[in-house]
Amino acid sequence: MSQPARMPRYAYVVGGLVLAVALAMSAPGEYQLARTAGWNEWVAAGMPVCMSVYAVVAVWFTESRAKGEKGRGSAIAGAVGALGMTLAGQVVAHWISAGYMTSSKELVAAVSAVPAIVAGHVAHMVIRAAKPVPAEAAGVVEDQEHDEHQDQDASPVQPTLDGADLLVDEVAKARARRRPGRPSPSIEDIRQAAAKLLDQGREVNGPNLADVMGRDRRTGSRYLAKLNAPTA
Fold it and tell me: What stretches of 98-186 show up as alpha helix (H) in DSSP?
């Protein structure tokens, strides 16, 4: 499976420079917007962080989620909202500075709500990123076989209505009715499934891996993460 080509190093340097200049140009308008809403100089200095820097973080978080991975949809919605809020803030700030618009009760209320909105979404992103991905249950078949051997050593005792003890192997009957566990596929199995998707002209993502391997979407996302994990 081919790996995507990496950008040359100078492209990262130029991209970082453009980002730094864009943030520097956005900061004065956002600062003035906070001052218009009534914050003092020290507190108003945090508004550029709550708007432009927050928008960058939201977009970065979205791009760090694999396509088809759970939580990517809400991350995209949050990033779009962050960019929209930042764009609207810049436009309004320059309207006010150019004299086309004055402050109002509605504007003060909207600007005052920015920190709470940003705090809530950032907390959501951090919790989502820190939540561990449950590992695929491995060795299910071996555990069941071990349990079955233990069941053979003793039979459960079931009392009857007349007080006598009737020895019945209810656990063994339940084991016989239970569906055998499915062992976790190896990395080679996942690679073969990915190759099959490429042969079919389909994108290698979580839902498609789940479909071709007969698993659910969440399991497919875990397989995708395992496939993309760097090998030692």
Answer: 105-112, 114-130, 140-151, 170-177
Contact status, residue 82 vs residue 17, Cβ threshold 8 Å: no
Block means of pLDDT (10 residues each) for the chain, 232 residues, are 64 87 88 87 88 83 73 76 85 88 87 87 78 49 44 48 49 51 77 86 84 81 81 57
Q: What is the largest CA-CA distance in the chain?
A: 95
DSSP string, 178-217: SPPPPPPPPHHHHHHHHHHHHHTT---SHHHHHHHHT--H
- Angle separating helix axes 114-130 and 54-64, nearest 10 degrees: 30
Tokens encoding 161: 């209505």
- Determine contact, residues 76/62, Cβ cutoff 8 Å: yes
- Residue 72 CB coordination number (10 Å): 19
Task: In whole angstroms, give the CA distance from residue 36 to residue 28.
Answer: 12
Q: Which amino acid is at 97?
A: S
Q: How many Cβ atoms from other residues are within 10 Å of residue 140's Cβ?
A: 14
User: Residues with Cβ < 8 Å from 138, sequence gap 6 or more?
Assistant: 183, 184
pTM for this structure? 0.49
- Give CA–CA dist 141/92, Å, rounded: 63
Task: Answer for the pair 72, 65: CB distance below 8 angstroms, yes or no.
Answer: yes
CB 44 within 8 A of CB 28: no
Q: Quick check: 195 and 2 in contact, CB under 8 A?
A: no
Exposure class string for 149-164: b at 16+ Cβ within 10 A, else e: eebeeeeeeeeeeeee
